[in-house]
Amino acid sequence: MLSYISVQNFAIIENIEVDFKKGMTALTGETGAGKSLIIDAIGLLLGDRATSNIVRTGSNKAVVEGLFEIDNTRIIKLLKEYDLFSDNQLLIKRQITQTNNNIIKVNNKTVTLNQLKEITSLLADIHTQFDTHRLINPQTYIEIIDGFNDEKTEKLINDYQLALKEYKIQISDYKKLQKSNDTLYERLDLMKFQVEELESYDLQVDEEEALTLEVEKMENFDSIYKSLNEVKRHFEDAKALDNIYFAQNSLSSVEDFSENYKELNKRINEAYFELVDVSDEINNELSKLDFSPKLLDSHLERLNLLESLKRKYRKSVNEIIEYLEKTKEEIANIDNFDDLVKEQEKKVIDSFNYLLNTSNELTKLRRKTCNFIEKELISILDSLELKKTVFKIEFINNVPSNYTDSSLFLPHGIDEVDFMISTNVGEPMKSLSKSSSGGEMSRIMLGLKNLLVNSLDLSLIIFDEIDTGVSGFVANQVAKKMKEISNNTQVICITHIPQVAALSDNHLYISKSVVNERTRASIKELTGDKRVFEIASMISGEKVSEAAIESAKELLK
Questions:
Q1: How many CB atoms lie under 10 A from the CB of residue 249?
Q2: d(Cα 106, Cα 44) in Å, to the nearest integer?
Q3: Structural domain boundaries of the chain?
Q4: What is the dihedral of CA 18, 22, 23, 27, to 10 degrees?
Q5: Which string of DSSP letters, residue by residue, matches 162-176?
Q6: How far is CA 138 from CA 147, 296, 427, 437, 453, in A?
Q7: In the 3-class helix/strand/coil scheme, how is 412-443 assigned residue by residue?
Q8: What is the distance in angstroms between the CA of the first residue and the CA of the last residue of the chain?
Q9: Using an 8 Å Cβ cutoff, are 132 and 445 in contact?
Q10: Which one, of 69, 19, 9, lies nearest residue 41 by Cα?
Q11: What percent of the residues of the chain are helix, what percent strand, and what percent coil, each to the nearest 5?
Q12: Cβ-contact 550, 532 below 8 angstroms
């Protein structure tokens, strides 16, 4: 249960602290006073997304902090897994800044929003007016059903969605192969021609660069020959090598007298042999140097051919070589195309069957849940003055029969359902979305929430005006049902119905005032005469009569 909440700089709330108690707590007050803001703040603690526009004008950040007492073994296990467990208490803190630099802490440790949602999904449920509106939209019914077996359903849905993803990949690859088959053989002749052409040229990696260098050498033959010959002449005319050799011999005669002499002699010796090697290389390069006009023409012709191929294929020579190899592979694949298609078709069929089996398991679980809902909801609706109501959940059969048809596989399975209801004896069943009044919708949703709380063992449920559209005796029955729920689960409800407020164990009044030209919400617990007066004002309106006060006292007995 929620035992404490602190809200700071949250819209019109400057600073509010509330101690919540067991049982049923009613939140009342004028429209716009801030009742829904309290629920919104609790929603943040339970994992709702936050935006910077909730930060009170003039403040840097909004802070919401709440303390929950927990005894749910699943929550405790999860907290221990995340190393967040602390003496059966759950302290949640949300900090929202103007720059959307938001911080979430659980038991003083930072967590992600997804982690917070995972924990609190086992803790509480918030009913808003939007939830009741969901009953007029059949597309939300699957989500409502799945909420009753959240753990089992979540695992099956995850398995199903993974299977669906894999199936879509396989079917996409299969359809691409089929589509390519139409144009494949038209391309085959072209590819074979290109392979034959390119193989005839015997292209080599980095060939163009090597040829270009050779051509440059030939075009600069005279300059190269002159330079190399000049170097050779300097070596021979000056007897440079002989002089170095004699110098080395002279130094070797005294090298024993100094380590330094020995080192210098070593270096001269190394230099001598290095220069001898250079001289030999120069002579070798001169001997190889030859100018052949015929060879130059051949190289230039080859370069022209390479340039032509580059323009034709719009690729470099190395890229053309890579293209050749890939094209040969593709031709080989085409030759084995029928085998490829059959292999891919088998993958599609296998993934289809696995996906269908997974979706069928999901359907079985949902049908079991629906049987439970149908049976239990009718009993609850009877106590809410919807007597003799007939309620059925109708499954629309969408079983795919063609393994290439993915259209019937929806994000959450193959199931589509409709809530069918008859609230009057003798009247045919009609879709809930088209046949029920606002008051009936409120009671049906209250019944579903009652079942949900019991099914998931939630410790807190919050009702935001679930009693909309009811009055009189029906309102009293709604109040009794909420009170009944509170016997096992903490209930917090926003209400404008006096019967609901009167049956609550605790009564909180939210009001707003202007202080220093700023609107500010405040909250206080009502007891005794103040509570009587508030309920009387809910009965009679702005002017509280004696009769309303007496009626309020009667309701509170």
A1: 12
A2: 13
A3: 1-123+505-521, 181-335
A4: 0
A5: HHHHHHHHHHHHHHH
A6: 15, 82, 21, 16, 22
A7: CECCEEEEEEECCCCCCCEEHHHHCCHHHHHH
A8: 26
A9: yes
A10: 9
A11: 60, 15, 25
A12: no
pLDDT of residue 238: 59
User: 182: pLDDT confidence band, cut at 50, 70 and 90?
Assistant: low
pTM: 0.65
Q: What is the 3-state secondary structure (H, E, C) of 230-265?
A: HHHHHHHHCCHHHHHHHHHHHHHCCHHHCHHHHHHH
Q: What one-character DSSP code corresponds to residue 206?
A: T
253 CB-contact burial (10 Å; exposed 0-12 / middle 13-18 / buried 19+) = exposed
Q: Are 417 and 432 in contact (CB under 8 A)?
A: no
Looking at residues 148-168, what average pLDDT do you find?
89
Kindly give the pairing relationship between strand 89-97 and strand 103-106: antiparallel
323/383 Cα distance (integer angstroms) = 77
Residue 3 CA to residue 8 CA, distance in Å, equals: 17
> CA quadruple 131, 418, 476, 537: dihedral positive or negative?
positive
The yes or no reply on domain 1-123+505-521 and CATH 3.40.50.300 is yes
C-alpha pair distances (Å), 108 with each of 91, 228, 507: 7, 81, 31
Tokens of 138: 């059949």
pLDDT of the residue at 399: 80
More reliable by pLDDT, 98 or 340: 98
- Which pLDDT does position 299 carry in this prediction? 85
Average pLDDT in the chain: 87
Name which of 51, 12, 15 is nearest 32 in CA terms: 12
Tokens of 13: 């709330």
